Amino acid sequence: MILYGRYLSPFVRRVAIWLNLQDRAFELRALAATDPNDLPTLKAVNPIARVPALVLEDGMVLTECFAICDWLDDTAAEKRLLPEGGLARRQALHWIAIGSATTDKAVAVVYEKNRRPEELHYHAWLERVQGQVVGGLSQIEALLPGEGFLGGTAPSGPDVVLTALHDFVATTNPWLLEPGYPKLVALAKRANAIPAIGDTRPG
Question: What is the pTM of this model?
Fold first, then answer.
């Protein structure tokens, strides 16, 4: 399989970690949707030119992070990262939804604050999305256990999502973590100590 995208993207990284934790071999092609030089190649794979995109061995292209991870779990002989059903699955998806929404807003901060020239910043919008990131991080902190993983003794899908979120914010706008989220920081540290996760950490 071929995975398109860079590990700086928390969505690409989620897929890479999912693949690693399920012991699936893949080739990473580190292209960025924000790089004009990469766009022709990305459009040939995914006409929307978004990452992640996962090319399967039969040539089919899967897009959108959750859809890819759902397929990986559905076809996993073992090492599923999400429960198959019931209350446990609903709870896991609840955690993923909070993590995904917060990640979306963290990405919005990057586009508005880090990429747009300062004189063109839309300050009211930036203040709003920054507040949404802080709100999401605070909710996550309240939900997390003091030790271990949400999946128990080993990381599950929600742990992957929250670790990728933490590391993305720490890499792009670490000041958003300044209020202090010790349980989230500890979760990310535990997760990144596992090579299947830590080896994908953005530099």
Answer: 0.95
